[in-house]
Design brief:
Beta-prop_WDR90_POC16_2nd; 7-stranded mixed sheet; repeat; CFA20_dom; Methylamine Dehydrogenase, Chain H; about 1800 residues; 133 strands; globular; 9 helices; mainly beta
């Protein structure tokens, strides 16, 4: 409608659209017109049990009619009906042609925003219900809660019962209640678009009555800015001041950010949190603010499933109108992410251990579900990834699926009696029901007719409310309309019978069976709403406590053959025939006793029995879980036991998967695991505290947490995975508080009896026991890097202990602390460790003492803090302090009993700020980020995340939160209570505090490398924000270990490498081959960043002539995950190639045969395959980093002949990407971020046709894509929000080409919504059209561009992380993210709907067709032309075969280490064991190069490896497990590995698990050896110490300190002397010293028999001088080679091998070398009884040298891309040997051709 004057100034909707007309208004249900005595006018009453079925709706016919109301303000005059539910729905049309529904209801618990709706909760804060004027500012609501949606008009609205409604109207003006026209004109308010309510739409007010005392006025949102610029000049008072007098009553309320005392609350926990204030609106902005009217249209905001929140502004005080100086600057608005916290991990089972109905399997068997207190957790069985259903406010007591698993029903305990229905696929709550008259709901079930049925019947069981709590309530619902937000109550009954479990009868949703305490009852629904029951008695046995209920079907759909199994705690299993309602059999579980009194097998008979706690039944077998800890699988007649599985404690729950091959088992000890019935393997998923967690601490160095619980256990957790690492149990005492000792391998734990114990982490030994306290410990905190320990107890005593002097007591202060509530941490220490604060000696006093002496420095009396009342008079506060916390910015925070937070200056004691009503009913704890920017408080069983005075609330805990803290990098929050919650902090724009060592954190782009890690970030005053510990180096922290092999350097590695580079700048020589770290490293994963090499290929090599080589490269194990687009596969021809270092592997997938293409000498960055599959292009990095001598080599390969065709050179550092044009006429190559030059080559003669670069822009290129339809067009994805559309303009002679480049800018809304710089990470043309390009970004968005108009048509959020890979065919799209998420999209509707102008679907018809989760970021891939199958590469060095259609499977083709390989052990000639700095030990099969076994060490680095011919039997029963190498005939039974933390771990190869861990060293282990036929190991560390450890007993026998000093140990070798049954061993250190030792067989006698010292120059091989920098020198290597000979290779005056005679103590032979040696091995090849051995040498210059031991002749071989680190001979047979070499993460297998 073009003329909208009829809507001015307002539209009386009931009158204009005639509410009495059925054509314009629809009324359904109980809608009645009546006369209201208060209003003296006609109103409409809407009421009914289900609000959705009783409503008034405008217009009557929704699809065809439109109200077209353009007024931005929508007014509703209504009164809710007390204690009844109502809903208001308004459908608005946006300018972007999207329909958005705005809803308000008291059914909602929190604000919820999705792409199509905004739901506001309504909670009345008064017991009396008033008539209300509700004003909805629709335009402000959209701008606040949705991105790029702009209000256009009201399309329709619906008023759903229960309520009284007078009228509705819309307008462009703000009508203020209680304001007369005279006052409005007098104050000039009509010029400000603020007017009084029209007479026909107003409420009557008496002569002496106040409008605000009689009625309520609500405006949503409360931050709406309705007034124009002129209104800023109007000075008006607050509502409270308006009510104080008649004169003030007449004044106007114009500050629309304010509401009256009677107002809606966003949720129950935030009642009374909206405050009136005189402060300007910009001082207290809403959170978050999304207002930006200039943004272009886009899809609506993506809301994170599972976390719902609502945000309020807060004022300084509750009743204070004065202002205090604030601690932080409020001049800027808050820009927190929404939500700012994301729940990542939940460690806990809650009350699942009390109810076996709390476990579920999904139908595909990939996920399990269990409740953890107020949250339902969905866990992936293989990856243990957790997803969450969040919304309950109390413990979830039972969960159930409907027939097809599309709906999940959950109920909660407690007084509310809440039932929730969830759409399982999206984890979205679609219906919330308050079960009438019920509380403490504890059982439910769906009626299942078949597995494909939606199962509409649902039964819920709970207890009656007061005063009928002893009675049981049973309700049956019809959930058919659950997707509409409501369900129907079919019938309800009350019974005195006990009901603990209830189940519907299979294939009949009108019958169900319940069990309880001595009660079995059959139920039936008659006539649809009549519930009848019949009790079944068991005559033979009385007072049975039934535990579980199951059905067995003999024949489907025949109830007369249905058998009911019921188990009991007395060990009975009762069989009932359902049709006849009678007991047919009674079984009993008891042990079978022998004549000698022993019990072994279990039988079913009479006698003393074992209680059955859980029961499951299938068509072929039954499963029982008993209180003796056994899970037993029986035949259906209970005559035979198939499987017995022993657990640590009683079983409390079990459930079988749908395929009946696995059983999910829950024990009362908090263990949740899966028993595989096929291979009898047990997988442990969770171990958790069984009672609430009392305290927790975090160790950032180890990335571990330690917790104590009321269950009496101390548990250590892996922070990354949430897995339990170890557990301590106290027998007669309960741990209550725990803390890690900084820089020590210990932790302190306080107990309820006053004892403090110091535990050694590695050995679990109690090193010190402190007994100074006599009552429970309440505070425990370390200071001064662990040198002081301060403790407090329940009596208020304070103790200071000296940790350096065996925890000697230094001082005690009696009654220093006030006696507080239990569970509140009493002590807080300042960030510099100099001061400690606590509440005491009374609850009104806060005391600050010196940490060293406990001398008082400041006392603050909080009772002297005054507050200002409304009459401006001061009054003393009666608040008492709960606890106190130091802030990093010298502030002191005090929480009070009236839920206030007081901020003091910790130096002067001055009060800075007061925040009132932080929580409503309880205030438990708080935590601050290390930069003092963010505050987290806990109370009312929830968390609040504060940014100054704005906050967001997060639910999930069902009990009080006992502790909350930020991790050291501010990236995570940990909260404990009923469980342990780990939250991700999503405030990416927060300046990160300074972080050292290997801490992982996220910083804004380009900022992390601009700051040296040894400098401290400063605050506004230039002072260090958080003084850190001194920067410490470990032995592994150097240029050799600072690089990441499979990916560009992480943020923490960048800082570490940068600081090391600065530290050694003076000593570095220009000739060193080490490449420097660029300060402009891209932060995205898509861009290629060259791996740091520590060597250069030797220029002087001695290579054998053709056909005379003594070595032949046979195969290579690995894949370079650091490359980009370095995998090519052509489905039709079967050609498959990928890169490893500087080699290209062409592999035949049918027979696994490899063809290795050699010719490159540096790391290959990318590959490109021509469209006709005749040419392959490969590009390596430049051999020199000199900018004037850059020379990147590009080789063109003939695919048919598999040989080099020609090579090209381009003057860039590295090739980021290259591709052939569609007609294969051109090859396009582009440089990386250091020199983003573009070169176009002709494929006819491979001449350079043109070169292009944009010197005026700093943007670099990430990706390119050719137009598949036009051979002269391509696009470039760049950094800095830039995309370039390029066209090649060809001249007539085809020699002079021009390039037309048009720049496009990404929509600013993407960067603004993600708060980071947008970079295009991949681009692809749509096949169906020639002018559409899809571009993915580093923030997960995909944009669609029109190349003709150079405009962005649309964008959508396709992933939560960076999208690194895209591929497309017609109607299909594949995306791969940086976290390994591979998705298949259906784009058919997208391509169809792009041409529609009024597209209302915000997703543009896109659907996810399938999805795979891989092990790491996806950086390469190739698929067939129909997307049935493909191969992708990940950054962790894996290649995966993906099948979407037939099998829907993923198969790993290639696995690789992700960091430098540190050890190699051949197992016969079939397998090889390797270790790496990535923390893994892997076993590869040499024939097919598959990884068959892997051991991981949770973030540690494996530094050395050796084999052991003995083994230790695992303590855990592993009879059901089989190692993949168990059948290999070898003498190697175990692997002994050394780690960078000084530990040794032993892995049993026969059982495939770790069996022992020792900690003999305090620094990184560098060398290790296990002598033959012995039970000891010899290990050397970086500090020069050597430890002798007994591997069988797990103890350290002795430590040899003869080599201790600055030089690390390089090598240890040993040999057995059979003549005198003794051992001889040697130790070689980096300082060229070799010691010889002799000992007996037990190694309790060790004797130093000789010292060897080899001379060398005083300078390094490169001519520079380094003080103790041994990494610049070749290693010192020594080995026994005969009964009396020793071979030594190391740094010396000459390059040589020296043979030393042990008898004559002389060097008897010197063999010259031409390269410095980095590793060597000696073969055992014997020919004609004459010793003729080969020496294999690996050099620093990437050469493999094979040398004849007798003659000294040698040959050099190339192929490795870095320094050789390991080399080993394998004796295959008498004819020849094999040779294994490693460099970086590559494994080379060579065949020795000498015979």
């Amino acid at each position: 409608m073009s003329n909208n004057t009829w809507q001015h100034p307002y539209v009386n909707i009931f009158k204009h659209f005639d509410i009495g007309s059925t054509k314009k208004c629809a009324k359904q249900g109980d809608v009645t017109a009546l006369m209201d005595r208060d209003l003296k006018s006609t109103v409409f009453r809407i009421r009914g049990l289900v609000p959705a079925n009783n409503y008034i709706q405008f217009p009557a016919q929704l699809p065809n009619q439109n109200l077209a109301l353009i007024g931005r303000l929508f007014y509703i005059l209504f009164r809710p009906i007390f204690d009844k539910f109502f809903s208001i729905h308004i459908d608005i049309l946006t300018h972007e042609q999207h329909i958005v529904r705005i809803s308000l209801s008291n059914l909602y618990r929190e604000l919820k925003v999705t792409q199509t709706c905004i739901q506001f909760p309504y909670t009345s804060t008064n017991t009396t219900i008033h008539w209300t004027v509700l004003c909805l500012d629709l335009e402000a609501i959209l701008l606040t809660h949705m991105t790029n949606q702009h209000y256009h008009m009201i399309k329709s609205f619906q008023l759903c019962g229960n309520m009284m409604i007078k009228n509705c109207f819309s307008s462009q003006y703000f009508y203020e209640p209680g304001l007369s026209n005279h006052k409005a004109k007098q104050n000039g308010l009509k010029c400000s678009n603020i007017r009084s309510l029209p007479r026909e739409l107003s409420y009557p007010v008496g002569k002496d009555e106040s409008w605000h005392n009689k009625y309520d006025f609500i405006i949503i949102p409360n931050s709406s800015s309705l007034a124009d610029e002129n209104s800023n000049n109007v000075q008006l008072q607050t509502p409270r001041e308006l009510i104080q007098s008649d004169e003030q009553t007449s004044r106007s309320l114009t500050d629309l950010t304010l509401v009256t005392q009677r107002t809606i609350s966003p949720r129950d926990s935030q009642v009374n949190n909206w405050r009136t204030t005189n402060n300007p609106i910009d001082r207290f902005p809403s959170l978050p603010t999304m207002y930006e009217p200039s943004l272009p249209s886009a899809s609506s905001r993506n809301n994170n499933d599972g976390i719902h929140l609502f945000v309020n502004p807060q004022t300084v005080g509750d009743e204070t109108n004065f202002e205090l100086p604030l601690s932080t600057d409020r001049s800027q608005q808050s820009h927190l992410s929404d939500p700012i916290l994301r729940l990542r991990t939940v460690i806990g089972l809650g009350n699942s251990t009390q109810n076996c109905t709390n476990l579920l399997w999904t139908q595909d068997g990939n996920y399990i579900l269990y409740p953890s207190n107020a949250i339902v957790v969905q866990m992936h069985v293989e990856t243990q990834q957790q997803l969450f259903f969040i919304g309950h406010s109390d413990k979830v007591s039972a969960i159930a699926f409907n027939g097809n698993s599309s709906l999940l029903a959950t109920i909660q305990a407690g007084p509310d009696g809440i039932l929730r229905l969830w759409k399982f696929e999206t984890r979205r709550c679609i219906c919330v029901v308050r079960v009438p008259g019920a509380c403490n709901l504890h059982a439910l079930d769906f009626g299942i007719r078949n597995l494909s049925d939606s199962s509409s019947s649902l039964i819920v069981v709970g207890h009656g409310e007061q005063p009928q709590q002893s009675r049981t309530i049973v309700c049956v619902y019809n959930t058919l309309n659950a997707h509409k937000g409501s369900i129907d109550l079919l019938c309800r009954t009350t019974t005195d019978a006990s009901i603990t479990h209830i189940r519907f009868v299979p294939y009949d949703s009108t019958r169900f069976v319940s069990i309880g305490l001595d009660n079995i009852r059959f139920w039936r629904i008659k006539n649809g709403n009549d519930l009848k029951s019949m009790s079944i008695s068991v005559d033979d046995i009385n007072q049975l406590e039934y535990t579980d209920l199951q059905f067995e079907h003999i024949s489907n759909n025949k109830l007369n053959e249905l058998i009911v199994f019921i188990s009991s705690k007395s060990g009975h299993i009762i069989e009932l025939l359902y049709d006849e309602r009678r007991v047919t059999k009674i079984h009993r579980l008891l042990p079978k006793k022998h004549s000698n009194g022993s019990t072994e097998k279990i039988t079913m008979a009479n006698g003393p029995s074992i209680g059955i706690c859980a029961f499951a039944c299938t068509n072929t077998f039954c499963i029982t879980g008993s209180n003796d800890g056994y899970v037993r699988v029986w035949s259906n007649d209970f005559t035979q036991v198939y499987i017995e599985a022993k657990h640590d404690q009683a079983i409390c729950g079990l459930i079988t998967s749908h395929d009946q091959t696995r059983v999910l088992i829950l024990t009362v000890s908090g263990s949740l695991g899966i028993l595989n019935l096929v291979n009898k393997e047990h997988l442990n998923l969770i171990r958790a505290h069984t009672q609430y967690v009392t305290d927790i601490d975090y160790d950032d160095t180890r990335k571990q947490m330690i917790s104590v619980g009321q269950d009496g256990t101390i548990r250590i957790w892996c922070f990354r995975t949430g897995k339990q690492l170890s557990e301590f149990t106290a027998e007669r005492e309960t741990p209550v508080i725990v803390t890690y000792a900084p820089n020590r391998q210990t932790f302190a734990c306080g107990f309820n009896n006053g004892t403090i114990k110091i535990f050694e982490i590695n050995t679990s030994i109690i090193s010190v026991e402190i007994t100074h306290h006599t009552t429970g410990i309440t505070g425990l905190i370390y200071a001064h890097n662990g040198g002081r320990l301060i403790s407090s107890d329940e009596e208020g005593n304070l103790c200071l202990l000296d940790a350096n002097d065996n925890y000697k007591l230094q001082r005690t202060v009696a009654k220093a602390l006030s006696i507080l509530h239990k569970g509140i941490s009493t002590l807080s220490i300042s960030s510099d460790g100099k001061h400690t604060a606590y509440v005491g000696p009374t609850e009104f006093v806060v005391t600050i003492v010196e940490t060293n002496s406990l001398n008082q420095t400041l006392r603050i009396d909080i009772s002297s803090c005054t507050s200002i009342s409304n009459d401006r008079r001061s009054s003393s506060s009666t608040d008492a302090a709960l606890f106190v916390r130091f802030a990093p910015n010298r502030q002191l925070l005090v929480a009070t009993t009236n839920f206030k937070l007081l901020k003091f200056d910790s130096y002067s004691g001055k009060l800075l700020n007061i925040i009132s009503n932080v929580h409503k009913q309880s205030f438990d704890c708080l935590a601050l980020s290390s930069d003092s920017q963010y505050l987290v408080t806990s109370g009312d069983n929830m968390l609040k995340f504060w940014d100054d005075i704005n906050f967001q609330s997060f639910v999930g805990h069902s009990e009080p939160v006992r502790k909350v803290f930020f991790t050291d990098d501010n990236m995570h929050i940990v909260s404990i209570g009923d469980s342990i919650f780990i939250w991700d902090v999503l405030a990416w724009t927060t300046p990160r505090p300074n972080v050292f060592s290997n801490t992982q954190y996220i910083v804004p782009p380009l900022k992390n490398v601009e700051r040296a890690s040894i400098r401290f970030p400063s605050d506004n005053n230039g002072q260090p924000r958080n003084p850190p510990e001194p920067f410490q180096y470990t032995q592994q922290t150097n240029e050799n270990t600072a690089r990441a092999v499979t990916r560009s350097l992480s943020n923490c590695e960048l800082n570490t490498t940068t600081s090391i580079s600065h530290g050694h700048k003076k000593n570095q020589n220009k000739k060193l081959p080490i490449k420097q770290i660029d300060r402009n490293l891209p932060t995205i994963q898509r861009h290629f960043i060259q791996r740091i090499n520590h060597s250069q290929l030797a220029k002087k090599r001695y290579v054998a002539p053709a056909n005379q080589e003594s070595l032949k490269l046979q195969s290579i194990i690995g894949y370079n995950g650091n490359g980009r687009e370095n995998v090519v596969w052509h489905a039709q021809s079967g050609f498959f190639a990928y890169t490893v270092g500087c080699n290209i592997i062409v592999e035949n997938l049918n027979n696994n045969h490899q063809t290795i293409l050699t010719g490159h000498t540096e790391e290959i960055s990318t590959l490109a395959l021509s469209n006709d599959v005749t040419m392959l292009a490969s590009a390596q990095c430049s051999t020199t980093m000199n900018k004037d001598e850059l020379q990147t080599k590009i080789i063109i390969w003939d695919i048919k002949m598999l040989r080099q065709k020609l090579f090209l050179h381009q003057s860039v550092y590295a090739i980021q990407s290259m591709a052939f044009s569609r007609d294969d006429r051109f090859l396009l190559t582009m440089g990386d971020y250091r020199k983003a030059h573009l070169t176009l080559w002709s494929t006819q003669d491979f001449t350079s046709l043109l070169n292009w670069s944009d010197e005026s822009s700093s943007a670099y290129i990430n990706c390119l894509a050719w137009n598949p339809m036009r051979a002269n067009e391509f696009c470039l994805g760049c950094s800095n929000n830039l995309i370039r559309f390029c066209t090649i303009i060809e001249q007539t002679n085809n020699t002079n080409l021009k390039l037309q480049v048009i720049n496009g800018q990404m929509p600013s809304s993407i960067s603004e919504s993600t708060k980071k710089i947008c970079e295009i990470t991949s681009c692809i043309y749509l096949i169906s059209t020639t002018n559409l390009v899809l571009c993915s970004t580093n923030c997960g968005f995909i944009t669609c561009w029109n190349t003709r108009t150079n405009t962005c048509l649309l964008h959508w959020k396709a992933d939560a992380n960076e999208i690194c890979y895209m591929a497309t065919i017609k109607h299909k799209l594949i995306t791969g993210s940086s976290t390994g998420c591979l998705r298949l999209w259906n784009t058919e509707n997208l391509e169809v709907n792009l041409g529609l102008p009024n597209m209302t679907d915000s997703n543009y018809g896109l659907t996810i067709q399938d999805e795979f989760q891989l092990d790491d970021g996806i950086i390469s891939g190739s698929f067939d032309n129909i997307f049935d199958m493909g191969i992708v590469g990940t950054t962790c060095g894996s290649l995966w075969y993906i099948c979407w259609t037939t099998e829907r499977s993923k198969t790993r083709l290639v696995a690789s280490h992700t960091d430098r390989i540190t050890g190699v052990i051949p197992i016969e000639d079939t397998h090889v064991v390797t270790s790496s700095l990535d923390g893994t030990i892997r076993i590869f099969q040499l024939e097919d190069r598959n990884e068959i076994l892997r051991f991981d060490a949770n973030g540690l680095k494996v530094t050395c490896l050796t084999s052991w011919d003995n083994s230790i039997v695992p303590t855990i029963d592993s009879s059901g497990t089989t190692s993949p190498i168990k059948n290999i005939r070898t003498t190697i039974r175990s692997i002994v590995a050394g780690y960078n933390d000084g530990t040794i771990r032993i892995f049993n190869l026969l059982h495939g698990q770790m069996v022992l861990k020792l900690h003999p060293h305090t620094s990184s282990i560098c060398a290790i050896n296990a002598p033959v036929n012995a039970t000891v190991s010899l290990s050397g560390a970086s500090d020069g110490s050597v430890a002798i450890s007994n591997l069988a007993q797990g103890i350290v026998l002795r430590v040899l300190n003869d080599h201790r000093g600055n030089a690390p140990i390089c090598m240890i070798d040993s040999k057995y002397i059979s003549e005198n049954n003794s051992y001889m061993w040697l130790i070689a250190s980096h300082d060229r010293r070799v010691s010889l030792w002799k000992g007996n067989q037990q190694f309790d006698f060790c004797q130093l028999i000789d010292w060897l010292t080899f001379s060398a120059p005083s300078f390094a091989p490169d001519g520079t001088t380094h003080d103790n920098n041994w990494q610049s020198y070749p290693p010192s290597l020594a080995r026994f080679i005969d009964s009396n000979l020793l071979m030594y290779i190391g740094y010396g005056i000459e390059k040589s091998i020296q043979i030393y005679n042990l008898d004559t103590k002389q060097i008897v032979r010197t063999i010259p070398l031409n390269q410095w040696c980095s590793c060597f091995d000696l073969s055992s090849l014997n020919i004609d009884d004459d010793e003729n051995r080969l020496i294999a040498i690996g050099t620093n210059d990437r050469l493999v040298q094979l040398k004849d031991y007798a003659q000294g002749t040698f040959q050099d071989f190339i192929g490795n891309s870095d320094t050789l680190l390991n080399i080993k001979f394998i004796r295959k047979n008498k004819s020849h040997d094999l040779l294994i070499t490693t460099s970086s993460n590559e494994i080379f297998l060579w065949k020795v051709l000498l015979t």
